[in-house]
Design goal:
The protein has 372 residues and is mostly helical. The chain has two domains: 234 residues, no CATH class; 92 residues, no CATH class. Helix 6 packs antiparallel against helix 8. It starts with a helix and ends in a 14-residue tail after the last helix. It comes from Nocardioides gansuensis.
Amino acid sequence: MSGRRRDSVAFTAVVTLLVLLGALVMSVVIAFSGAPGSLVLATLLAALPVGPLVGCFMWLDRYEPEPRSLLVAGLAWGAFVATAAALVFQGIGVGGGVTGEQSLAVVAPVTEELTKGLFLVLLLWWRRHELDGILDGIVYAGMVGIGFAFTENILYLAAAYNGTDGLGPGGTEALTSVFVLRCLVSPFAHPLFTAFIGIGVGLAVTSRSRIVRLVAPLAGYALAVLTHALWNGSTLGGIDHFVAVYGTLMLPALVAIIVFALYRRRSERGLMTAALDDAARRGLLPATDIPWLVDLRARRHARTYARQTGGRQAERAMREYQAAAIELAYLHHRYLRGTAPVDFAERGREHVARLGAVRPYISFPGQVVPTR
């Protein structure tokens, strides 16, 4: 078994085991947090922002789509592992004499970002080949943050409805207030915090500097904790303090992350074009294919053309060819930058072999359709 295969198996086994344990813990916690009716209602309300948020991160991920299994693993990690571990750490802190306000403003940001960020560390350790840069880090961090917020929102919504949050008698009015605050006004909070860790991990993957590879994830974690702590602290100072922090910190930080992510997404086309142009000069793929690989609209058009001319089988072949070419582009880009992974040659041969196996059976619009 190759080293990369062993790493993949180890990652899958560890993540699966921890997700199952976390799911067991959180199932018990949720079961004791309210009556079945209130939990169903809380779960439905907590799920409402999940779809739009996932859609946003999937849209960012369109140039080089990450494996769906890893994206689901990120969601599950956030929903079960990170939440369960954070509850344990915070319970230890409270048991050690930490007050509720101290736990919210200090312990929660430190432990929650640590437990969320651990998923990206495991990716960096065992599945580094799936991380091609900053955008990948943001996408995986976003998935973890979405999963964490979903489970946390269930607990907050159920507590508000049942009146067990210590803020009032509960009921529909309390539930509505928490829903508006957490699911409508700030559903992006946890993905935003953890995105800083994703950026740090992405920088570590693409940097030639050993110092940057070490410091970048730590700096990302520090920024995640800082923004999380400022956000949590704003809820302790009254509505005026909350609005001030929301307007002067959270929204600008969110806009900055969005602009940065869009910039990185826009630069993907130039990155892929340069890498594939060089790969074509080395004879790894035909240069005439490149325009159909680096433009998202052209990719869709090529798949549609393949389906119209050769049916579903031809469309699958086109998808396979595009996926292999995209993987080759990002790998070759890292080679040109001098940050190629240690298994660069092995992976490169695999991608080129996939391209060679599929290429005789596909054609792009305007080219003659080959026959078997």
